[in-house]
């Protein structure tokens, strides 16, 4: 893993950390979400400091380059995160419809 990629990982981790801490301070981020993003920061820092992990994992999983492994893992993590967020949104929509229906029945 070359130097610019390692620097980019550290910078991204620092930016995510600053953003999450700012959102936590403003109380606009749930604890579970903040833990997820802090976990992502920790993983990025570990991969930047110990690039041998990325080399080993990319060799084991058959990736041509560690960069491809990192990007693939990032995409997979964000896809899973999007799916779980979509489930939460669906549940909230159902609750909103039930609440609106019950309020409409009360008004009538």
From TrEMBL:
Q: Which parts of the chain span the membrane according to its record? A: 6-24, 36-55, 67-84
Record flagged with keyword Transmembrane: yes
The record ties this protein, via InterPro entries, to:
DUF2304 (IPR019277)
> Would you say which domain of life the source belongs to?
Bacteria
| Keyword list, A-Z | Membrane, Transmembrane, Transmembrane helix
Q: What is this protein called?
A: DUF2304 domain-containing protein
């Amino acid at each position: 893993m070359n130097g610019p990629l390692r620097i980019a990982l550290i910078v991204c981790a620092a930016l995510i950390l600053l953003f999450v801490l700012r959102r936590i301070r403003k109380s606009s981020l749930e604890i579970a979400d903040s833990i997820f993003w802090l976990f992502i920061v920790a993983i990025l820092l570990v991969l930047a400091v110990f690039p041998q992990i990325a080399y080993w994992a990319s060799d084991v999983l058959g990736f041509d380059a560690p960069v491809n492994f990192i990007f693939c893992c990032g995409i997979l993590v964000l896809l899973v995160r999007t799916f779980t967020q979509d489930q939460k949104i669906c549940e909230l929509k159902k609750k909103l419809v039930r609440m609106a229906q019950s309020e409409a029945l009360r008004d009538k």
